[in-house]
Amino acid sequence: MKSGTFFVLFFILPVATEAGFWDIFDMFNKDDDLLSFNSKDLENDLRKSLFGQHIAVDTVLKAVSWFMRETDPPKALVLSIHGQTGVGKNYITKIIARNIYKLGLKSNHVHTFISGYHFPHEEMAEMYELQLRQWIHGNVSNFPRSMFIFDEMHPRLIDTIKPFLDYTDNIDGVSFNKAIFIFLSHTGEHIIGNVTLDFWRRGCNREEIQIQSEGMETQIFEYLFNDKNNGFWHSSLINQHLIDHYIPFLPLELKHVHQCVMAEMGHLNMTQDYDLAYKVAKDMPFFPEEEKVFAVKGCKTVRQKMVLYLKLQ
Ligand SMILES: Nc1ncnc2c1ncn2[C@@H]1O[C@H](COP(=O)(O)OP(=O)(O)OP(=O)(O)O)[C@@H](O)[C@H]1O
Ligand SMILES: [Mg+2]
């Protein structure tokens, strides 16, 4: 890794504290390589694990499968994922990662940046820019099929990342055309919410919603373009067509939260109790006020809610 000690400390230490020393120890000892990519496995995983997100399932399946199959893609794959809290934005990155890397999200080749955590101080933006550039360059030079996830991108850092997303042959001898960049954001959630609610009110099937329904995709990037907080970084990406896919995550309905509770029971090795799962799901808050169709927190606090219904042994 071409990086200075401070740089290593800056990024590795927080990760080490978060993951635990033994996880880090494991990461360096296990075989941390690529899986042999199989689009059927990705499809099965997406369809089985991710509820209520047919646009995301289709788009991610096609985009990632095509990208993984190409021997010499023209540029890095860039996905911009939008939606309200708890609808599966981080979760889909986990699904993608576990279908590409043997260690999934724990792979050394997957790098997640959380804006408020990794880049907290405005006055240190210049240093972050330099470190981020070196980090991306160093890691891709070491392992071209690296994945970078930005959870709520910091506006100042986009110029740093932009060259890596572009149609450039190489930057200082390194090609970025096998790397994957994923941006997660709440931006545009109200547009996605309105379109989904409109479909529901008209009695239309949710699965009929497409990325361009009621101009959703255009509305999202117009919003990104004009929003003062996000426009700065998004506008240059939009202008230069560097984002390959905008992926709206729809708000989740009761039946999806119910599926999340059932899945959670499975993860906890509990007997899956349909009625109990229904009670737990029903107990979550829903919006809008009159119709109460969509879960305010999506599936985010399902596990905590479930604990309240369990009998202590
Ligand atoms: N659509 C979904 N299908 C299946 N499980 C889901 C879905 N959405 C959320 N979950 C469950 O809820 C958990 C929290 O979701 P996740 O972290 O992906 O939310 P998010 O969209 O990133 O929210 P936030 O914007 O608050 O970060 C996931 O780990 C997963 O277990
Ligand atoms: Mg998230």
UniProtKB/TrEMBL annotation:
Swiss-Prot/TrEMBL keywords: Signal
Signal peptide: 1-19
SUPFAM superfamilies assigned: P-loop containing nucleoside triphosphate hydrolases
Molecular function terms, GO-annotated: ATP binding; ATP hydrolysis activity; kinesin binding
Domain of life: Eukaryota
Family classification: Belongs to the ClpA/ClpB family. Torsin subfamily.
UniProt protein name: Torsin-1A-like
Organism: Carassius auratus
Lineage: Eukaryota, Metazoa, Chordata, Craniata, Vertebrata
Gene: LOC113041197
